[in-house]
Amino acid sequence: MNSEVQQKAFGKYATLAALLGQKAALELMPEHEEFKVVTGKVGSMDLKKVISSVETAAKRNELINPDIYRETHALYHAIIEAAEGVTRGKLSVGEVMRTVGLSFAAVRGYPYKDPNEGEWIAVCFYGTIGAPIKGKEHETLGLGINHI
Amino acid sequence: MNSEVQQKAFGKYATLAALLGQKAALELMPEHEEFKVVTGKVGSMDLKKVISSVETAAKRNELINPDIYRETHALYHAIIEAAEGVTRGKLSVGEVMRTVGLSFAAVRGYPYKDPNEGEWIAVCFYGTIGAPIKGKEHETLGLGINHI
Amino acid sequence: MNSEVQQKAFGKYATLAALLGQKAALELMPEHEEFKVVTGKVGSMDLKKVISSVETAAKRNELINPDIYRETHALYHAIIEAAEGVTRGKLSVGEVMRTVGLSFAAVRGYPYKDPNEGEWIAVCFYGTIGAPIKGKEHETLGLGINHI
Amino acid sequence: MNSEVQQKAFGKYATLAALLGQKAALELMPEHEEFKVVTGKVGSMDLKKVISSVETAAKRNELINPDIYRETHALYHAIIEAAEGVTRGKLSVGEVMRTVGLSFAAVRGYPYKDPNEGEWIAVCFYGTIGAPIKGKEHETLGLGINHI
Amino acid sequence: MNSEVQQKAFGKYATLAALLGQKAALELMPEHEEFKVVTGKVGSMDLKKVISSVETAAKRNELINPDIYRETHALYHAIIEAAEGVTRGKLSVGEVMRTVGLSFAAVRGYPYKDPNEGEWIAVCFYGTIGAPIKGKEHETLGLGINHI
Amino acid sequence: MNSEVQQKAFGKYATLAALLGQKAALELMPEHEEFKVVTGKVGSMDLKKVISSVETAAKRNELINPDIYRETHALYHAIIEAAEGVTRGKLSVGEVMRTVGLSFAAVRGYPYKDPNEGEWIAVCFYGTIGAPIKGKEHETLGLGINHI
Question: Which pTM does this prediction carry?
């Protein structure tokens, strides 16, 4: 990232956590230790279930405060942006005869030096998308980032 | 990826190459050595220029044969799918007052065990998207995969 | 509207009817008295139900003639355009874990001075969109206009 | 809005300001006096110019702090959501032979009772869209809302 | 078409005219003689130019009355729907490094038995889309239909 | 098509097969005899069923090899591109209260002179789209093309 001096690449950190696991991500980017990370897995033909899996994991692990709507709103839009990458601009899974098997990572913290920039959230999905038949699938990826 | 036994995760390999560079990607995934990789950088408000940068790099480095349209066609759709992730379903950059600064990796090879599956191509973009003012930007990512 | 001399702002009238009710709209824009107005409410996670609520209200109140397909066709496209505003370009509600609670107004009449321009229809939705939890939502709005 | 007890309808307020002007909006919704409002006009075939007109007005009138990226980011996404309504899901103007003439209102404040919900921003466009010939146009509207 | 008894397949007629020329279309579907047809060709990287070529041909050949906005509006939406087929949901040509070479046919008349259904318009594009290099392209097609 | 000397218009051939039937298509374009064609019909409010009807017909008639994922992948994307034309960029049927009644043709072969270009697939849908009421519908069309 060509502005690494000004901000921490917490989206890269979320992506490495989704690709390689949280521990490997931290080894590669130890300076991101202060960011809070939640990871999980979800497989479905139902985009609703993909969205709610991340929301549930984020609430259960206190990545976001479920009582504050602005936190839910920030997370929701980050999830949807990541899902645009996974579905490559179609935002449909089962409706167009596809199924997904995804790992996800959600990361929260202060990526910018200036404390006025506040907290941001990154959501990354990585896994497979394809026909609902084992092996008839290829990889897919998506990243969403939002201020919280 | 939940079918790693059946296929090589060459999309993950492309993503690590875009995020960390080709050398680091190979260290993390040495079993992908036989895949051909091309990397590059492009910064622009013009999506056309982003697309043509990958195409030019792929042709110049013989990742694809420029005389065969099916190879151009396969690469083009992989680029567009990756761009859907970067722009999160809008496929516009300058038209909506955004600029991107991206690293890219394009990877070609045989990800499936069955040789009848033939060659596939993966394109990954990683970098920043935002207002055309230094620092007013956040990270972005996209991955496209196609048979060649 | 910068061509108010040439046409009546019946889309504004539909919007005020959705926002404030039909009576308040007429008080603010009494010169639109000759336009026919139908209003209603619908809450759902199912976009189909949102569409059919407006269609049913329009047919039951004789805003359109249900036996003439061109009237159904004109209304349908006005509803879909209004729904694009409500969903901000995604045309999905429940599939992406959202629910809507909407007031709507459909208005029919002659907005242009030239009688050859014939009748037009405007559909406006106003209400809330958000997570399927009370209070975890914000406002949303959409307007569609078509010749009939 | 069916949750008016829990939140102020500042999106409705922004819409009335775009439709009727800031003074008329305040007369209709006096309880929104504490919200900060910026209004303006823009006519163009270029969506970039529409976006930058709102950004410039918001910065010049101190609706947002131009030095904090999260404020620019929140405003940008609210503008884009409003533009989705105006263009009804296509996010293009001149590229598809259309021109727009728009009034806009941007509103900032605390719509939710709970102070932890913090500040939010609403952007509304109202005006005309059509062929680049006077009179060959109809009304259009869009509303975007984001936490800031 | 499974309702051919109730309506004339004037969209099929427009498609045959774009594929084979107006004369061949009429030979295959002589019962459509009363429909008015305009055909033309356009090659461009600029979607605006594609749209305006059809509009100009339709006005010059009196398929629509240029002084009545509802006719321009009906034609415009039929063109855009046909362009969605050509670009397969992206509504961009040059912006995503593609060029098109298209034949088009626009057809106007009464497809439904019931005279209250009035006049409708069909627009069909057929040709090639691809890289801006001769031969690096494949066929493309789109059909839009609207009441007038 | 302005490059007919360089390639066979097998997309036109698929379209004529969907519009007029396979026999009539072959009479009009006898030089396409070597292409393999599969035709069928499907009516549904469910896009999944439309997609799977073409996939099932293509597998049952050995147009594609069901054991090779690249063939399924090539066909799937051709179907989705054709469905973008049918739904005009929305990729939804029942979710937006529409139903379709479609004929389809899928064609496979070598359209380019250069044998290195290999095999390609074309999928065309033609039929009606509209309200789920007999007669409240108009024609629709879509064509997708992919290398296999």
Answer: 0.97
Contact assessment for residue D106 and residue D49, using Cβ atoms and an 8 Å cutoff:
no
Residues in chain A, total? 148
The total of other beta-carbon atoms located within 10 Å of residue C18's CB is 30
Cβ–Cβ gap A118/D74 under 8 Å: no
- Is A144 part of the contact surface with chain B (CB cutoff 8 Å)? yes
Distance CA B43, CA C64 (A): 52
pLDDT tops 90 at residue C4: no
Query: Which string of DSSP letters, residue by residue, matches chain E?
Result: -TTTTTB--HHHHHHHHHHH-HHHHHHH-GGGTTSEEEEEEEEES-HHHHHHHHHHHHHHTTSS-TT-HHHHHHHHHHHHHHHHHHHTT---SGGGT-EEEEEEEEEEE--BSSGGG--EEEEEEEEEEE-SSTT-EEEEEEEEEEE-
- The answer to whether B90 faces chain D, any CB pair under 8 Å, is yes
State whether D80 and B94 contact (CB < 8 Å): no
Tell me which chains share at least 3 CB pairs under 8 Å with chain B. A, D, E, F
d(CA F88, CA F129): 11
Question: CA D84, CA B136: separation in Å to the nearest integer?
Answer: 22
Q: Which of D68, D116, D146 sits opposite A68 (nearest CB)?
A: D116
Neighbours of F119 (CB within 10 A): 16
User: CA C137 to CA C126: how far, in whole Å?
Assistant: 13
Q: Does A96 touch chain F (CB under 8 A)?
A: yes
Of B51, B69, B83, the CB nearest to E135: B69
Is the minimum CB–CB distance between D68 and chain E shorter than 8 Å?
no
**For F42-60, how does the pLDDT look when each residue is reduced to its tens digit (9 = 90+)?**
999 999 999 999 999 999 9
pLDDT greater than 80 at residue C5: no
- d(C-alpha D120, C-alpha D14), whole Å: 12
List phi, psi (to 5°) of C143.
Answer: -135, 130
According to DSSP, the β-strands at D120-130 and F137-147 are unpaired
SS3 call for D27: helix
The H or E element spanning position B34 is none
How close, in Å, is residue A69 to chain C by CA atoms? Answer: 5
Q: Give contacts of A73 with chain C, Cβ < 8 Å.
A: 130, 136, 138
Candidate from D96, D131, D137 with C-beta closest to E91: D96
User: How many CB atoms are closer than 10 A to CB A43?
Assistant: 14
Taking an 8 Å cut-off on Cβ atoms, the answer to whether B97 and D91 are in contact is no
Interchain contact, B76 vs E137, CB within 8 Å: no
Alpha-carbon distances, residue C3 vs B80, C112, D130, F103, F143 (angstroms): 40, 10, 12, 46, 41
Contact B95 D47 (CB under 8 A): yes
Contact status of F112 with chain B (Cβ, < 8 Å): yes
Q: What are the structural domains, with CATH classification, of chain C? A: 10-147 (3.40.1510.10)
Instruction: Please give the Cα distance from D4 to C113 (Å, whole number).
Output: 39
CB-CB neighbours of E2 under 10 Å: 14
What the block records as the tokens of D79 is 């503008």
Categorize the per-residue pLDDT at D19 as very low, low, confident or very high, splitting at 50, 70 and 90: very high
Q: Which residues in chain D have Cβ-Cβ distances shorter than 8 Å to B93?
A: none
State both tokens at E43.
């090659």
Give the Cα separation of D123 and D143 in Å (integer): 6
- The three-state secondary structure class of A77 is helix
pLDDT band at F4 (very low <50, low <70, confident <90, very high): very low
Residue identified by tokens 């359109």 is C64
